[in-house]
Amino acid sequence: MKILTFTSLFPNGVQRELGVFIYQRTVHLAQLPSNEVEVVAPVPYFPSWMRVRPWDAYGQVPRDEITGGLRSSHPRYPLLPGIFMPLHGWLMFLGCLNHVRKLHRQSGFDCIDAHYVYPDGFAAVLLGDALGIPTFVSARGTDINVFPEFWIIRPMIRWTLRRAAGLIAVSEAMSKRILALEAVEGKIRVIPNGVDLRRFHPTDRNEARKRLGISEEGQILVSVGSLKAVKRHELLIRAVRRVSERYPKLRLYIVGKGPLHSQLEAQVEEMGLAGRVFLVGDRPHDELCLWFNAADVSCLASASEGCPNVLMESMACGTPVVATKVGGIPEIVRLPELGRLVNGDPESLAGGIVTALGQNWDRNLLAEHAQQRDWVLVAKEADEFMRSRLESNEPRPQ
């Protein structure tokens, strides 16, 4: 099967940590017998000679490169953030059409494997229609949990879901949201994300803390996620103040970057938590194993989620989780031996953390649970689903 993977979230030579979960599924899909995969990862146009952060990174992305053994290309398309959001999918399609048409003449793709319903999936379905090949679209999170609330984008999302040859949801909860948008039930498959077992595995906790340069004393919480409103780090910080009354040596390390950095930093100072709560910024994906192993508990206070990899990665390191019961999270933390599910308020978060810190967890059991689902299995499930849909020859709606 010759597959064109289409996504703006594929890692490149400049943004190496971009869309690691998409990278993993794509690479393992390419490693299956009789598969050939090529990647088109469009980026917004930005002059390479201009230095205006963070947009100047787009200007430095190479046009073509080899990533993880896969040939990937990065055609440009015009974009003004916010203003062009309703046109984002159309602009992505028009910017990639000639390039993808040329690749199709050379390779003869059997299908397009697109990630993220809007704008990427919308553009990919348009490309598939233009080339006469079926398009599969994977829903990831915000594209289904948030974007359909925008009335001007909702019709394009619904059109994409109806027109796609097959839909992949990363959780049952997301599958239900897709069906609520009037997608066809028979063409949806739930395929949760996996975990990279080469990177995430249990190690000695004190050794991990030593390698990170943090104190080996006291209890440590870690929260990995971008500093955006949906992650609700501010609630977690409030919860930590409550918990610190019982655990005076407790510390929270928030790993990630985002627009709320200054706001969260001010909150930490205002609440007198300097020396207890640390914003460590963005860290390489390879380093996350150390953070999970260094922690007594991993926390996720999100308002919405698809299938957060950080929970599986934490458990693969033998570290229990405390997370809000939203989206696909209850499908991951489905046993009390894996962690605690809480409501999205400081009191519930604090209670879950106190309970987790006071429990004697079986790290081997946690790791063994996560090891049941690696990226090889995910790729096999995606491959089987796409092949079955291609063989069905089911006509697509006009």
Describe this structure as you would to a colleague.
The protein has 2 domains: 2-194 and 375-392, Rossmann fold (3-Layer(aba) Sandwich), CATH 3.40.50.2000; 205-371, Rossmann fold, CATH 3.40.50.2000. The protein is 40% helix and 17% strand. It contains 16 helices and 16 strands. It has an 8-stranded mixed sheet, sandwiched between helices. Helix 8 (205-212) crosses helix 11 (288-294), helix 9 crosses helix 14 (346-357) and helix 12 crosses helix 15 (363-371). It is globular and about 65 Å long.
Provide the fold topology.
Layout: E1 2-6, H1 20-30, E2 36-40, E3 43-44, H2 56-60, E4 64-67, E5 70-73, E6 76-77, H3 88-107, E7 111-115, H4 117-131, E8 135-139, H5 142-145, H6 154-163, E9 166-169, H7 172-180, E10 188-190, H8 205-212, E11 220-224, H9 233-243, E12 251-255, H10 261-270, E13 277-281, H11 288-294, E14 297-300, H12 309-316, E15 321-324, H13 329-332, E16 339-342, H14 346-357, H15 363-371, H16 375-392
Parallel strand pairs: 1-2, 1-7, 2-5, 3-6, 7-8, 8-9, 9-10, 11-12, 11-14, 12-13, 14-15, 15-16
Antiparallel strand pairs: 4-5
Helix pairs in contact: 1-16, 3-4, 4-6, 8-11, 9-14, 12-15
